[in-house]
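Appendix B. One record, verbatim.
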Amino acid sequence: MNGFIIVDPKICSGKPVIRGTRIMVRNILGMVAGGYTVDRILSAYPELTREMVQVALEYAAAVIDERSEERRVGKECRS
C-alpha cells in the first residue's frame, strides 16, 4: 500500500489513517459513498494526493475481502 496507510493506537484510536494526517480511510470512503469525485476529495483535503486517495480505497477493498474470507472460512469450519 505504498506506506500511505498506517494504524497506530495513538492516532485516531487506531483507525486506519493516511500517513502524516489524521484523515481516516473511512472519511474517504464516506465521501465516495456520498458521491464525491476524487477531485472533490482532493479539494476538501489539499494535503492528499490522487495516489493517497487511491491507496485508501484499495486498502478498504482489501480489508473487506479479508473479512469476507474470514467469514467464509469460519462457516466451513462449523459445517
